[in-house]
Design a protein that fits this description.
38% helix, 17% strand, globular
């Protein structure tokens, strides 16, 4: 499928306008567009503006609150509960991380559970916000069932991503953002949109057999077998049960029941290194670690060893200079 290259400024403007046209609060539309374009800039198109049409449908059919009233209940010096009032998860998670950052700056740690939210997009955005302020960021969210448990023949857990952001002194932050499935569902959707095959092992068909056709995928597999399965369950406990939300097969579907609120939960955390060690030493140590990893001899077929999130950071720098590639169909949707 043909692609077009669009400046990130234009892409953000078009995306925000599309959401405003669907009735979303303009400030929330702008914040949501920032998170979506952030994903496209980093080359994670599965969580980028491709998703706009889905959010517009939910806004139009009543599954998202167009003008939510957020509330935050601080339950202790380092803890709190953020109520998203069924708004767009991108805005909800961003505001919740802001509360976590405040607590971390004041008391060392901010741990926030989020209730009554919806799909929040790429978690890297939220942990990066913490890392850019010299804090360690953590974020988790559950999703509806699409991943088979290790040893199972039918899905039980979601892709249940987890992300970490670590600041450094002169280097850019280390950003680890990963699904606990072999691949995020959004990458299957992007391959379907682009008319491309997927690698073997990404998804299974209705009989549980691996398929390279994204149209035949009925479930995903956990990464590293029992390890990914176990970590996926941990994410569901933190962002689901700890947030008073549903778990596994009880989570409402993203694609379906567009007139109903999803009531998703998230977990965000910010940690202030200065409450545990000398902050300048910590940041300098992060630089030293990154620089030494860059000096590791690369294996055959590799030019350099990168830290987590660095390939995406390099793509972001390139796309900021040269523009963001998106499929022509997505661009046509946003432009009309």
């Amino acid at each position: 499928m043909a692609e077009v290259v669009v400046s990130h400024e234009e892409l953000q403007k078009l995306t925000a306008l599309k959401l405003v046209q669907a009735g979303l609060d303009p400030n929330h539309a702008e914040m949501t567009a920032q998170v979506l374009v952030h994903a496209d800039l980093r080359g994670v198109s599965s969580h980028g503006v491709l998703r706009t049409e889905h959010y517009v449908r939910r806004l139009n059919e009543g599954g998202l609150n167009k003008s939510p009233s957020f509330s935050f209940n601080q339950t202790g010096p380092c803890s709190g509960i953020f109520n998203g009032d069924d708004g767009l998860g991108h805005v909800v998670a961003k505001q919740a991380m802001n509360e976590a950052i405040k607590l971390a700056n004041e008391n060392g740690i901010g741990m926030i559970t989020v209730m009554n939210s919806s799909h929040c997009g790429a978690l890297s955005y939220f942990v990066q916000e913490a890392a850019e302020q010299g804090l360690i960021g953590v974020a988790m969210t559950h999703t509806d069932k699409i991943v088979v448990p290790f040893g199972g023949a039918e899905p039980f857990l979601g892709t249940n991503p987890i992300a970490y952001g670590f600041p450094a002194k002169t280097n850019k932050p280390i950003i680890l953002d990963m699904a606990t499935s072999n691949v995020a569902l959004g990458k299957i959707l992007y391959a379907k949109e682009a008319g491309k095959e997927i690698p073997d092992g990404w998804g299974v068909d209705g009989d549980g057999n691996s398929t390279t056709d994204p149209n035949e995928v009925r479930a995903l597999t956990p990464f590293a077998g029992p390890k990914g399965y176990g970590l996926g369950m941990v994410v569901d406990i933190f962002s689901g049960l700890l947030a008073g939300a549903a778990f596994g097969p009880h989570i409402s579907k993203m694609y379906g029941d567009y007139n109903k609120s999803r009531k998703l939960g998230h977990y965000v955390c910010a940690i202030n290194p200065s409450f545990f060690t000398n902050k300048e030493d910590f940041l300098a140590g992060m630089d030293e670690m990154i620089n030494e990893i860059h000096q590791v001899k690369p294996a055959e077929g590799f030019n350099q060893v990168f830290v987590p999130g660095e390939p995406e950071q390099l793509k972001e720098e390139k796309h900021l200079r040269e523009g963001v590639p998106i499929t022509e169909s997505v661009y046509q949707y946003l432009s009309n």
